[in-house]
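## tool: complex_structure
## caller: assistant
## args:
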Amino acid sequence: MDFTFTTDELELRDGAREYLRGRCTPETLRGLVESGTADLAGWPELVEMGFAGFLVPDSAGGLGMSDTAFVLLAEEAGYVAMPEPLVDVAGIAAPLLAALDSDAAAQIAAGAIRVLTSHPLNPYVNQLGTGDQVLRFSDDKVELIAAADIETTTVDSIDPLRQLAHIETAETAILAEGVEAGTLAARAALRGALFTAGELLGLTAAMIDMSRAYAVERKQFGVAIGTFQAVKHHLATAFTRLEFARPVVYRAAATLDGDERRARLAVAHAKIAAADAATGAAEAAIQVHGGIGYTFEADLHLFMKRVWALCGLWGDRHHHMRFVDSEILHGHLQTGPATTFAANGLASGQH
Amino acid sequence: MRLAFSKDDEAFRESIASWLAENLSGKFEKIRFRGGPGDEHMYFDERRDWEYRLADGGWTGVGWPKEHGGRGLSIEQQVIYHEEYARAGGPGRVGHIGEGLTGPMLIAFGSAEQQQRFLPQILAGKELWCQGYSEPGAGSDLANVRTKAVFDRDSDRWLITGQKIWTSLAQESDWCFVIARTDPNSRGSRGLGFFLVPMDQPGVDIRPIRQLTGTSEFNEVFFDAAACDADCIVGEPGDGWKVAMGLLGFERGVSTLGQQMLFQNEFNEIVAIAEENGAASDPTIRQRIADAHIGLRIMRYNSMRTLSGDVGDGSLEKSAMIYKLYWSTWHRNLGNLAMDVLGPEAEIAETAPYDLTRLQSLFLFTRADTIYGGTNQIQRNIIAERALGLPREPRPATD
Ligand SMILES: Cc1cc2nc3c(=O)[nH]c(=O)nc-3n(C[C@H](O)[C@H](O)[C@H](O)COP(=O)(O)OP(=O)(O)OC[C@H]3O[C@@H](n4cnc5c(N)ncnc54)[C@H](O)[C@@H]3O)c2cc1C
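## result:
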């Protein structure tokens, strides 16, 4: 048992952190909000850093990193509320295309194309206008669609940095059908929920950091508001939730390639824990900011709105909760000694 | 205790219901259920017309005493009025600050001249008010206001200089009540005055602040030697804090009834959506709906008890203190429930650009409920210190 990350993984994370915090600043985000564009000018740099091909095997020109390491990357993307669809392209489409031996994986890694995802769990595709192709999952088909051939209707998200569209009609190339397609759709859902949980962890950490800084700087009654126990407790609670969510998400990442039900359970738990930590932190962060927390001018709103959007993505709380409760009440989930790391939480032999 | 409406009350119900049915139609149809909290920027002109219509019908200031031009309705009939208003989808009142805060404040603390000057205009829906309390350095620590009021003998007027912030609806208001320092050497709650300041003058500069919702209901207001007449101070210089706090007490009064009826409408809408989109089959959603209903009833009973009057042991005054904390927390949870009922659709705005649905606005606005009018933290301090008599938090003197 080892919950730590390798030096390689941590170095990549640190590199990503330094780069993203330098490039994707709140000022950048506000500029994008004002111009109303999804400016993905930074994508070539992300490609160069290896992020697009993070999960693509070396042989196809990627970094061949692990899913656990990608969680770290998703956290960093969340921390800066990055608008680029990194999870879609690099976390879901690229590895699944690689597993299907599609050339598209190598093209993603090389930065030649961006492939977005469409899935029954999510009614809309994010940043459709900026993608070259869409990998569309349904229960019995996986298709690759050229973005140019798609008819769409766009809708506004409450997150001003998400640009959503619904695919109406499209010319498609079928990649998989039947049972195989169902399995792929399920795996896409796991990846989507897991890495979204990673982004939520990052967003949570960012909101706690902003609130901490504000609590030190803002004075009322002649002292920093962080002096007041009520403020301290809000932030301490948010921080505790965040730290308790982290190992849940890391564990889910390490489980992803194994038994499907076991992974499904771990991912459900991860999404719930991360979403709870994030919504709690968003609520606390606004509260600690007082009136300023309720403005469009403060950066905070961009983060809380991203949280709001991501909570419903790849299955909301209730979607995942239903799976967990049915596994306990109607499934075969065993709890207790020797089951912590057992496949599916099933006692051995019961598989 | 008599927990029922009389025959007279029911007849009254009939009269307000039929008046609303007749009047809240035609050009007012589109403002039904609009303009409530979080939606106050919508249909302002139409709602202003509606205010005149209400005034013509004698339906403003229904709880004000008759001698001040109100209807002097009993508590029961005020309950009925608010119930029917909400049931009919009566729009958010553009005159609510004047009716709910300025009026009762002037009735309690104003001079006869001030009452005659201002109350009829509020009742007629002709003059709208905003609240100039908070400043950049004076939020929770309201007594730290820096805005100054200097009496100018030449012009026989008060001149107000300073900055207010978060002033809701300042851009639509004719008047602002302002707490300002009359004694430049004073600190804290002493040395303050309570002023009635006209907004339409060169010394007043209103700059909208954009809110989370993308709209601007609140503003920064800069006063640069803004003038008000010598008799536009309520009470004496130095009485400002007493008046300001008295006014906050009215926020917990009758206006809570109307607010709860709005809550009821929001609740009904959420339940209807949950039934329609299937969320109501989810056991946790079902329980949260039941919980929300229970909370609504609790608030209702608490308000009615408060409004029935104190039995003399001060217990009611204490129970009134819990009210803001209770409703703001309840309402914030309702906002969360609304979004969870919507599921992934919660993310989708009504139309571009950034026109939020009513429930999205509700969700966002309920983030502010726990902040304005005294944050939840401040409310808890008040309850602990004043209702329970716990030792005061160490409060360093402000400089
Ligand atoms: C939508 C909206 C509308 C508003 N409308 C008006 C209006 O019309 N007129 C007007 O005058 N004002 C208005 N306000 C302002 C509102 O009253 C203030 O925002 C509120 O009093 C808090 O002050 P602040 O924003 O400066 O926060 P701060 O006082 O800076 O508080 C920041 C955080 O510190 C905490 N804190 C501060 N002191 C203590 C303490 N002693 N103990 C524990 N915790 C503490 C607070 O609870 C909060 O979490 C409005 C605000 C909002 C959000």
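## assistant note: Residues 211 and 359 of chain B are 16 Å apart (CA to CA). Chain B has a mean pLDDT of 91. Handing back to user.
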